[in-house]
Every structure is written in C-alpha cells, then in structure tokens.
Amino acid sequence: xxxxxxxxxxxxxxxxxxxxxxxxxxxxxxxxxxxxxxxxxxxxxxxxxxxxxxxxxxxxxxxxxxxxxxxxxxxxxxxxxxxxxxxxxxxxxxxxxxxxxxxxxxxxxxxxxxxxxxxxxxxxxxxxxxxxxxxxxxxxxxxxxxxxxxxxxxxxxxxxxxxxxxxxxxxxxxxxxxxxxxxxxxxxxxxxxxxxxxxxxxxxxxxxxxxxxxxxxxxxxxxxxxxxxxxxxxxxxxxxxxxxxxxxxxxxxxxxxxxxxxxxxxxxxxxxxxxxxxxxxxxxxxxxxxxxxxxxxxxxxxxxxxxxxxxxxxxxxxxxxxxxxxxxxxxxxxxxxxxxxxxxxxxxxxxxxxxxxxxxxxxxxxxxxxxxxxxxxxxxxxxxxxxxxxxxxxxxxxxxxxxxxxxxxxxxxxxxxxxxxxxxxxxxxxxxxxxxxxxxxxxxxxxxxxxxxxxxxxxxxxxxxxxxxxxxxxxxxxxxxxxxxxxxxxxxxxxxxxxxxxxxxxxxxxxxxxxxxxxxxxxxxxxxxxxxxxxxxxxxxxxxxxxxxxxxxxxxxxxxxxxxxxxxxxxxxxxxxxxxxxxxxxxxxxxxxxxxxxxxxxxxxxxxxxxxxxxxxxxxxxxxxxxxxxxxxxxxxxxxxxxxxxxxxxxxxxxxxxxxxxxxxxxxxxxxxxxxxxxxxxxxxxxxxxxxxxxxxxxxxxxxxxxxxxxxxxxxxxxxxxxxxxxxxxxxxxxxxxxxxxxxxxxxxxxxxxxxxxxxxxxxxxxxxxxxxxxxxxxxxxxxxxxxxxxxxxxxxxxx
Length: 800
Known about the structure:
Domain Cadherin: 88-168, 169-277, 278-392, 393-497, 497-619
Membrane topology: Single-pass type I membrane protein
Shape: elongated
Helix content: 10-25%
Strand content: 25-35%
Distance between the termini: 190 Å
Low-confidence stretches: 1-10, 18-66, 612-619, 658-662, 685-716
Number of strands: 44
Number of helices: 5
Signal peptide: 1-30
Function: Cadherins are calcium-dependent cell adhesion proteins.
Transmembrane segments: 614-643
Structural class: mainly beta
C-alpha cells in the first residue's frame, strides 16, 4: 500500500515539475577558456575563426547546449510555448550572427528566433502521432549567410500526458459457459489498449473491473480473465447474462481515464433435467378394421433441456397389448407414435391398457444423482366395433381330385363366417376371371365346390381359382380366398413308342446283331415311376427273322435271328410290338417297327436301301441321278413355255370392248353380199359409234422391226385424183408396221345429224352404182362441184 501511494504522488507531481522547468528561462552555458575535455550529452555549435590572425593568436571558444529538449504534448496556451534556446560564444551581442533551424517540423511546428536562438512550438503536439522530432541548428553570418560553424543536430521529445482513454478494440464480446458449472470456471478474457506511453508514468497502466454483471461473474484486475462467481447457474432459470467491463488507466486511481465494453455470456445446455409426461393417463379409440401400421395416437414427454439433451426414446414396458401395439419415436416432434401391430377384433377384446416409458437418450453421468432420467404414463385404447368382411376358416385352400372324377362330384368345401355380432349369412361364388373355362361350380350357400367339366391331368395338373364370400345383408363386405386344385393322375393312357422309329438291317449282318433299340413313353405319371413290358403279338412269337430283348433301362432291343437277308427278295419287314404299363389296371398298345434291308459296307455302314440300286450302272452315284432328273425337268419347262408362246401368237386381233382402242379401217378379202348380207361382218361397226354397245375393235400389236419414216409429201394440187391419193395412203398404212392404229384414216358411215346433203355412204343405198346420178352435187356449191366431176368421170369411164 505505501508503494502505491508513492507512485500516485509521483504521477501527480511529475507533469507539474516538467511544466515548471519548461517555463523557466533557458540556461546558456559559456564555455571556459580552457578546452572542454569532452562533449556532454548536448549538441555543440563550433565557433568559426574570425580572421587568419585570430586563428594564429587565439583559440576558438565553444558554446554548449543540451542535445535533447522536451515539450509537453497537448499544450494549448495563448502564446507559442518556448521549447529552448540556442547560443554560441561567437555571438558578442552585436547581432551579426543569425541562427538557422532545419529538419522535422522546422518552420511548421517549430520556429526559431534567428537573432536570439529561441525555439518555440507554434502548434499543438500529440505524442501518439509523433513522439520526437530531429532538427539541425547552425549559426551563419547575418549579412553573408556564410556558416560560422558546422551544423549541430539535436532532438525534441514530446512528453506524454494522460490524454487517451483505454479502448476495447474487439468489443462487444460474446462467450459461452456450460450451465451448472462450478465456482471459478473460466468464461473468457478481454483486452483493452491505451495509446499513452507505457514507459513513462502510469498513463497506460490499466486495471479491469466489472460495473454490471455481479454477483454472477468476476474479473481479474490485471489479466481481465472473467470467471463464474456463482456455482450451478441454471440455464432453464436464466440463459443469458450481460456483463459491463471497465478498463481504467493510471493504475485505476482517481483522475485516470476509463473505457467500457459489454460481454454477453450465454449458458449452454447440459442434460440436467429428466423427461416428464404432460399427463399420466392417455385415452385413445380405434376401429377394429384399421389397417396394420396405422398411427393410433401420440404421447409426449416434455424435457426442459434442448437439442440432443432433450431427445427421448419411447417403449411399451407393460400392459395387455404389448403384442398388439408398438411405439416409435419421432425425433422431429420428440413424441412417441403408437401404431397397430396386429389385427384387432372387437368381438374378442374390446380394450387394451399399455404402460409407456420415455427415457433420455443421452444421459450425463455428472447428474445421475438427480434421479432417473425417465418417466412413465398409462395409455388406454378402446376398440370400436366395425362392419367387417367375412372371414374364411383358412387363408388358402388346397384340394385334390382324380382326373376321372365324375361330373358334379364334390371336390372340396370352403367355409367363412361374419365376425360381427350380427353374424350375417354368407353367399359364395367363383371369380370367373380365374376360371375362364368354367370347369368348377360352387354352392352359394354351403361353399361346396363341384366339377363342371371333365379334367385331364395330362393337359393341366393345377387349377387356381378364387372364391368370393359376400355378406347377404351388406354386399359391400366381401372377402376372397385362393383355392388351389391339384388333379391326381389315373392310368388312362397306354404307353407307346417315344418317337417314330425306322430300323435298318444290313444284308451282311450277323445273327444276334442289335438292329434297333427303342424306348417307350407314357403320358401318365405313376407314383413309383414307369415300368414297361414288351412282347410280340401272339402270332409273331415264333418270328423266324427277329427277336426282342428287354434292357435294364426300360428300353427294348430288336435283334436279328439269322443272316442272309436279301432286299431283292424282301425290302421291308414290319414288326408289331406290344407295350404294357404297370398301372392298375394295366394298359397296353401295339406299335409297329419298320425294318428296311439295306446294302452296307464291310464295316456296317449303310450305303443303299433301294432295290433299283442293282440295275444302275457301276460308278453312277446319287448325285449323278439328281443331276439327270434336274435336266429332264428343265427340258419339260422349256417345252411348256414354247407351247404357251405359240398359243399367245395365234390369239385373234379382236379384243374386248373395255379396252380403249379407236376405230380403224377394216379391210376384208371377200366382197360380201352387200347390205343384205349380214353374216359376212357386222354392219353396225360402220354406223354411228355412239349407238353401238358391242363393237370389237382391232387389237394391234406393235412390231419389233423398225420402219424408216417416209418423207413428207407436197401439198396435193387441185387436179389430183382423190381416189388415187386415198389408195396411196392406204397402201402406206398397210405396209408400215410401226404406224399405230389411230394414225390411219378414219371413215365413218355416219355423217352427223342435220346435214342438208344427207348421207354419202353407199352402204345405205338401195341401188347399184350404175343407178346413181352425181350431177346434183354441182348444185351444192363449189366445195362439192369437184367431187361431182370425179364421180361423173368415173361413171363415163365405166360406160366406155
């Protein structure tokens, strides 16, 4: 305590002492006439020689001043503050010397009187901005500005005063501490900074304290470590605390500056509270027909803790419904869900009682002494009656019936009942989608299944049908049950050869040689497997050629009795074999084995089995025979094609009237009998084609040879003979095979209706040519005058 008192007194008087020293007149030290032995801690101003004579006769005198000056920061007075004074012995007071100041802040912060050497601070100084200034002073001649001595360097230090309060740069702060912590548990630490000089005085010496937040927390004054001041603080009572922290300089004494910050302390949760059901008894009701897995109800145990500390698991620990119900935990809602595990039956049991337990999943052993972290509750579940569908006496049925069962015989029976108290009668039916062939029927009242159509085990062994039970009082209540019907085998199929066998016997075979091994098959399926008996027909027992032998594998071998078989004498042998099964009663069938006699090589390889092979020339193979046969067939095809083409060429040129061929000139080699001769040709073909229904035009075929086109003819003069012109054109058309039929001259026997000239055709004339007089044509006009002249000329030629 005394030490702190002295420190406080020193901190109080030191600034006053420095201020008093600064305000005193500056001390000027004159150097003695004898040379100084050494420089003191100040800078020196060396005196310059005034003249050469003085350099010889006199010794230079030196003036000494401090090399360090001090000035208080933040000094603000009406006048500039005097920092110090420079002086040299070369200055006799005649004002012939001038002082010059240069360096940090010269002229801006520090100003020197060039005559007296006084240095003043003309601005307010802040040590936190700049703690010291380095300057250079020099004495020069007032008139010539020539240096009188070398420049001297000195330092002006800014002395600190307590002008900065402590600051918490990282505030406000947040910290977390577990609830129920012991006394003195460290929470966090904070740090404040002070911009004042930590070396000089106590301006930067900080002391920490709590202004708000007691009595819950405390702080170390020097280290600022914050600790809990109370034990077992409960988060559930109060979760968050606000602490105000102060940092004060000057060692915490009065007059010091201070700064504050806030610290928010949050208590983190620990599992110190057990779960607790909101009520001790829960009631639920559920219909008896509810689907398995359906949620019946929820129970919840509240926990004051949070997060994983509040997680609880739920279990059914007792009760008469432990096998019927189950409970699962919902991690999201933190409750227990009771679900149905097995079907309910109101008629069997109408209510259940369960004891449910909720226990914490994460238990903290530090708090196990607070008691068990679990709680229990009672759950009562009431089953409600519902209209249930019929219930079959079995979930599935398996029936068996022999395949030779009589129609309408009873195969089996299904039973069902109404589980409700009302006990409605049941009606049975078959789902015909499972019995499309309607092989079975069922009695709607008693559920007896009967056979409707014959069964065949070899076609289908299993028949799967579905029986429907419907309540008569409520047709919406139905149930279904699968019924599997197995058809049992009876011996109704005789054995037979497993396949079509054909044996080959070599002419050079030996007696006792196995010709063929055959096996039998039976569609029936006896319990002890198949066993076949083989024998020959009674009339074939003493067969001179072949015999049979039963093998251990239920097969049969056919053996030759002798050698010397000849296919020219007998090519094929038929051997009937009787096959019997071991059924009750046994069934049998006769299968015939065909044995062919063949020519074989010396090693027994069959080469030919045909009799014609003996008459073939030596060396002619089967391939050659096939080639010859193919050539014969090819020749026959060529002949048929040739005959067909010949018939096609001889077809008449008259075609059906449905083909689009224009009417052409038709020439006949016979004269015919005139208009009265109707048998030579159809006169209707020369009449009006509009009125003809059954005319048969020519069928022209385009020739293969090419005909050279004829040269164009010059226009016909007026004096040419028309008859000759027509004949020439007709001759060209007849001899030109390339001319299509519609390029020929068209002559019609019908002139058209309304012509004043009438018809020019001689076919309709009842008289001969000699009776015709064509003079009247000249009266028809210029166009018919020339025609009349031609006919007149023709008549005169005939008469001549």
